[in-house]
Protein 1
Amino acid sequence: MIQENLQKILANIPEGVTLLAVSKTKPESDILEAYNYGIRNFGENKVQEMVGKYENLPKDIKWHLIGHLQTNKVKYMASFVSLIHSVDSLNLLETINKEAVKVNRVIPCLLQFHIASEETKFGLSEDEAYALLESDSYKAMKNVEICGVMGMATNTENMDVVRSEFKHLKQIFDNLHEKYFVASTTFKTISMGMSHDYQIAIEEGSTIVRIGSSIFGERNYNV
Ligand SMILES: *Cc1c(COP(=O)(O)O)cnc(C)c1O
């Protein structure tokens, strides 16, 4: 089932767009099935769960942290996390930098933006991102690398709303690129699109789609 799902999804994803298989709540056997099909990028939203899976599964898996991240959890994954999608405060970025220093790494990060109309979704506003990027604290950081942006569209059937939110995120990416990252060779990632909206996200410029239920089936509880 998982491999059939992957085959269908991969056929819809153009070259240059990465499929991130969101394996949160799913067993390691499901991850191995996707791994055996060639998938190497997996996304988790709970640090503890990701650490357990990291320890048990093949070491060439790239682990992405996609959920809201508490500062006190950063240390458990600093040595191996491949990309943190959910940086939503200067304080969190400071902690990531501090933990990255301890393990002698530069940790790739995305700034998460609040693009949905729901109050509950985490993320920065564009102004907050400017303040972060202009802060002395950020400018002094040597062990984090901001590689782009991430966002979640409103959970709605109205695909016009979803499309306009993705357009907004792409615009934010372009603004940041022009203002702060024009000389950067690594600021090029737009993480947007999930199971029900990834095709629209790709049309609007996504470079990483985060797909869970369409690969692994519905999750038992809503996380
Ligand atoms: C769970 C989750 C996804 C995957 O959602 P599906 O609808 O199952 O594809 C993508 N992004 C984030 C941030 C998530 O928490």
Protein 2
Amino acid sequence: MLVKIPQRSQLTESDITDESVYHDRRSLLKNMGFLGAGALMTAALSKNAQAGFFSDETPVFKTKPLDYKQDIANQDLIKTPEQKVISHNNFYEFGSQKEQPAKLAQAFNVEPWKLTISGECDNPITLDYDDLTKMFPLEERIYRLRCVEAWSMVVPWIGFSLADLIKKVSPNSRAKYVAFETLYDPKQMPGQANRRLGGGIKYPYVEGLRMDEAMNPLALMSVGLYGKTLPPQNGAPIRLVVPWKYGFKSIKSIVAIKLLEHEPQTTWKKLAPREYGFYANVNPNHDHPRWSQASERRITSGGLFARNRIETLPFNGYGEEVAHLYQGMNLSKHF
Ligand SMILES: Nc1nc2c(c(=O)[nH]1)N[C@H]1C(S)=C(S)[C@@H](COP(=O)(O)O)O[C@H]1N2
Ligand SMILES: [Mo]
């Protein structure tokens, strides 16, 4: 039997409409035939009031407080509220709908965890769960996160530079690229066990960076957000954050990092190479084949019908730090 699988290469309109309109439409479809604006408002408000959406039987993942140095320089960025950061997610291993990971990942087991860093280097290492938060001093990084679907957030991540981790393994002269791999565990990740739930992706999810991109000080290995360890829906226990690239580069729940001589395969490029490239730098001048990238919907604490549509910035506003990496490259060809 041929099953029609929804995937981002066939994005539904809901993925790029205003979040509140989308949720309202969903509850509308689910619960009732027709609702006036007043009743809609009440339904949405009472839904938000149920702390975290979980029913009594759902296990709730426990995060732990972290010690870290504050990001003084970026305190004036208006942060996306924590409740939105942890309930509006893309993590297809736990379902391809935005609200699914927060629900389906709560029983996720992060201990024991092993992260191996190997490949073209002199000192391959394996880190276990405790190493992730103890190997390096932790710092807060308040970054903009711009999804290729044209929504964005501002998130106070906590972590350490990817560069520091790479230096630990002493890369050799053949190390030109860095490949990343997410945990493969269909028993824990329902989207890996069910093609429809997992959006048609072939798992494990894989990503990659060029070595000079990986060594840029902005590239962060994140182990937490909003002062605590990461919740599973945001990529516990450790994920990458590359703020000048579309969100899909920021791979979650990483178990392997490999230094390579050649450009590695990456999940979204494999799935739809016309639509998603290896570089995936945020670029308002290069539209996605099916929608504009010139603007984005910033997810804020704004009211129920807030639009918060803002202009998208080249390199997501981090051009000063990273534009030099792409000198002489045609960014429309290497999108
Ligand atoms: N393993 C894995 N990593 C992933 C994804 C995913 O589906 N699987 N989604 C990516 C996408 S498309 C985005 S926008 C960000 C979202 O991160 P957030 O949910 O913490 O905001 O995670 C990225 N990392
Ligand atoms: Mo994304």
